[in-house]
Amino acid sequence: MLRRVYPRYPRAIGCSNSPRGSTHGLLSVLVTILLFSLLAAPLAAQSGNKNFGGPLIELGEAIIFPGEDFALLPVRITSDQEIVSWQMGLEYDELLLSFDEIIWVGTESENLQTTAITNPALAPFYGLQVIYGGSDALPAGSGVLAAFLRMSINDPGQIPDRGSLSTNVAAVATELNPLILTSQGGTNVIPMTIPGTVTAFDFPLFLIESHEGTAIDETLSIPIRAWTAGPASTFAMGLEYDELIVCELTIQGSDFDDLTQGQWSVAQQTSAAGLNFVLSATAGIVPALSGEILGFLVSPRPLSAPGSWPLELIDGQSLVDNSPVSNLLDGLVSWVNHFIRGDANLDAGIDLADAETILNGTSMGSPLPCRDAADVNDDGAIDISDVISILQFLFSGSPSPPPPFPDPGQDSTTDFLDCL
Hints:
The protein is mostly beta strands. The chain folds into 3 domains: 22-201, Sandwich (Immunoglobulin-like); 205-335, Sandwich (Immunoglobulin-like); 339-420, Dockerin domain (Type 1 dockerin domain), CATH 1.10.1330. It is built from 5 helices and 28 strands. It has helices at residues 26-39, 255-259, 352-363, 371-374, 384-395, and strands at 3-5, 56-59, 61-64, 70-79, 83-92, 97-103, 114-119, 127-132, 141-153, 164-172, 180-183, 188-189, 192-194, 196-201, 205-208, 211-213, 219-227, 234-241, 248-250, 264-270, 274-281, 290-300, 307-313, 319-320, 323-324, 327-329, 331-335, 349-351. Helix 3 (352-363) runs antiparallel to helix 5. The longest helix is centred in the N-terminal third of the chain and has 14 residues, at 26-39. The protein is flat. The protein starts with a strand and ends in a 25-residue tail after the last helix.
């Protein structure tokens, strides 16, 4: 059977790439970008001017995890035109932080020809100008991730014992670096700005990752990570979540499972509000943790999806060896109405089974898992022409289906078809 399979939308990650230690090389940068992308609320780059609300430079939120001394602060730009250069001054507490360098990895600028001019010439910097060379330009759109600013904490000793320290970073106009966005046509505009926040944490810390699923995902697997100052053997957590969703805890395949070589026990109690569990290493202690995964919360897609539901750690019920953990970062589990056009049976690929699904739906009245995906030619109706479109795509080299394709996304066409 002929089958074309396409990459899945980012899903819950496994446990093999957990950050360990205080590394300052490329690996540490990549891991930090990964955690940022999972923690931050989804804000994907948009092509065109959809949701354009005026030019904007927005600095996001960044976390300096226990044992680390830097964070990557996202810079997002909103514009209805492609941008060939942008610049800004920076305002932050220089007694606490310093701006070290600009990072392109994981941003819309990563594969573009970029020149960054910092002011002053040596760190710490207080101004930045970015110029795109050749025919390159930053795409127009809402919340386009343009760069990360590496912000370092000058003295980790300033972080309160077992606590946290938070400070703002703002994009401002200065004499050497005024606030300007320059479009491909040479037009300069002064954007509005939204300041960002850098928060540094001391040990210990518990974190629930935030994950987003699409119509393809029937369940999401949400990692729970931990940072500890030293070895420990017992981890207790209280979790609270909406009664509309159901979560189950699994330890198999986690870092804790690997570190204990499977020698662990878990006492779990489920209540109407959530879940309480105590995870213990039964064959001895585990070494200090630097973001390793204790376990996974497995959450099936609720009937009320799409939507978002918080996963909250309960203060006073989260402990390491009976010592309270005050640094608790909650997560968010979300399902969005994204799909791959033509993937009528929601198996993440397009093949004859999808044509059969649509044919059964139109001729026999069989239910369609995603009516929007079954509208292969995007004409707002589901009929035999959609079956023909799939067959032509698979066997006669016809053009691919309209977006969203080949990756899951939202339907940009207004119609009366739905998915989730």
